[in-house]
Structure formats: C-alpha cells, structure tokens
Amino acid sequence: MASTSKNASTRNTVFGVVRTQLLRVCREHQRDFNTEIHLDSSLIADLGLDSLSLVEAVVAIEQAFGIERLPLEALNEERAEAYFTVGSLVDLCIRHAAVRIDANEGMRT
C-alpha cells in the first residue's frame, strides 16, 4: 500500500513538472491558451502542440528531469487511446528519468 501511494505521489510530482512546462510552451505559442491540462489531455488535439512546440516542450521536460533523451517513438507503443497524451508523456518521463525524483520535494536527488 505504501508503495502504491509513493508511486501515485511520484506520478503527481512528475505530472506537475510536465504540466508546468507544457503550459509555458503552450502560452508562448498561443497567447490566449487557457485549456486545463489533465493526464488524459492529447498533446496535439487538446493542447494544440505542433511539431516545433512539441519538441520545445520535450526538451524543457528532459532538462527538468535530467533525462538525456526521451524516446518519443515509445509513445506510439502505448495503447491507442493513450496515444500522445500528457499521461503517456508522464509515464515515459518516470521510466526514463536519469535521477530519482523525490516525490515530497519534486527535486532531483
């Protein structure tokens, strides 16, 4: 049970960082962006990211977590309904993080 709550806490922490970076990029490219970002939000359909803004967001997320390179092709391997969603990006970050994420602080340790 403690492991499940720790996993949920880690996922929430990672989601917070991913959400912050996505909001920043979306607002830079769409001045009137005011869409709520959820785990099931589509990066393309819901957030309106194009190839350039998606790359910009991914680079910012990689830097935030110390990930050398997120293999975006792995998003294609996810379930069809989860294809290119915020949640699939969060899960990808968790699987490829080069550092342990402290769920309480949201900082690299």
Automatic annotation (TrEMBL):
Carrier domain location is 12-97
Keywords per UniProt: Phosphopantetheine, Phosphoprotein
Q: Which Gene3D superfamilies does the UniProt entry name for this protein?
A: ACP-like
Highest taxon of source:
Bacteria
* UniProt cross-references to InterPro entries, sorted A to Z: ACP-like_sf (IPR036736), PP-bd_ACP (IPR009081), Ppantetheine_attach_site (IPR006162)
What Pfam families does the record point to? PP-binding
Protein name (Swiss-Prot/TrEMBL): Acyl carrier protein
Organism encoding this protein: Paraburkholderia tuberum
